[in-house]
Amino acid sequence: MKTFIESRNGSPTDDRSMNRRTFLSAAAGAGAAWCTLAAGARAEEAAPAGTPVAAFYGGPEADIPRVGLRWAFSAAVFFADRIMIPSPTPRGYTSVAGGEVWGPRLQGRVLPHSGADYFKTTFSTYYLFQAADGALIFIHNRGTFRRFRAPPEPGHPLEPAPTTLGPQSPSWLRFRATPVFTAPTGAHDWMNRTVFVANCERQEHPDRTIFTYYEVL
Amino acid sequence: MQDFVVPQTDKALGEVRLEYAFQLQARYDPPQLSRTPKGELRYQDIASGEVRGERLRATVYPNSGGQYDTVRSDRIRDVDAHFILKAENGEWIYLEHVGYRRPDGYYRAIAYIDASTQGAYDWLNNTTFVVTAKESADQRQVDFYYYVAN
């Protein structure tokens, strides 16, 4: 399958087809994805076939309400231009070229050239998904990133990474996105009433970010 | 530009783990509702509140803001909250909530927090918080529970 990435000024390199592979999370044993849950989290009872397993997290006291996360879908977003405007608080521009959306609750593509990250101290990205049924879904994505010495261990505060970071310095980047979606009423309406949080991972060749979106339950 | 095949997966690859951080017991004035072209504006002044947690002890700076929610035609509230905390050591902290409060009892939000980079609460900066909330029947008391999205 080809991506929907487009050349900077040209037309799509892909046939723009909307066919998607059948989603097989149940057959593949979605529970395996959660075998490394942090202490304090536990997987819920077996979910219906095809539904990813939710992980629930709680606090030290029993009266603290638990919060669950369940994988909803993933997106690979390809970026093209990177521009910085030296305004009083510098404004960045990183254009969204295109991409793919796949997962249990949403399949489709990133609408090519539908927006950008208009970065200002942190990212603030506006663009559109086009679902496999044709629906246009607007995403405003904000979020945070911060580099630490090592990944978190339960009960131990994260240590900031050293300020002078060499290419060999061990470190862990926490890069989280919090989208707000505006979807048409109908099949995608649930996205208008659900809070999401995403794991984000920068990848190169080509320049892209993989977003793993979780529903907050 | 090269063709590239996105390796689609049938399971979540990148993880997010939540770690409980602190809670806020907030008290509000009664909500004031106004009809607008975009739904109902639901304004609620934050009167007071206390934050309890191992790594943050603070009080709400009284009347520093509150909720500026929109009640939509499907009766779901788009939550939009802004207010200020004063920490035990005197430092100021800004909080913003963005989320949904649904008639079915789902009240979840993302909190964005700004604190002094030179102070004791720099760990709050550049951190995504997932929030769950419990609202009293009269909507005058709301308990917020904050989890770090690690």
CATH architecture tag of chain B: Beta Barrel
Kindly report the average pLDDT value of chain A.
81
Number of domains of chain B: 1
Share in helix of chain A: under 10%
CATH architecture classification name of the domain at 70-216 in chain A: Beta Barrel
Low-pLDDT ranges of chain A: 1-46
The beta-strand count of chain B equals: 10
Largest interface: A-B, 73 and 44 residues
Q: Main sheet of chain A, how many strands, which sense, barrel?
A: 11 strands, antiparallel
CATH class of chain B: Mainly Beta
Description:
The complex is a heterodimer of chains A (217) and B (150). By secondary structure, chain A is mainly beta. Helices cover 0% and strands 42% of the residues of chain A. In chain A, strands 1, 2, 3, 4, 5, 6, 7, 8, 9, 10 and 11 form an eleven-stranded antiparallel sheet that branches. Chain A is globular, with a radius of gyration of 19 Å. The two termini of chain B are 35 Å apart. In chain B, strand 6 (77-87) and strand 7 (92-101) form a beta hairpin. Chain B has one domain: Porin (Beta Barrel). Chain B has 150 residues and is mostly beta strands. Chain B has no helices and ten strands. Helix content of chain B is 0%, strand content 56%. At the A-B interface, strand 3, strand 4, strand 8, strand 9 and strand 10 of A face strand 1, strand 7, strand 8, strand 9 and strand 10 of B.
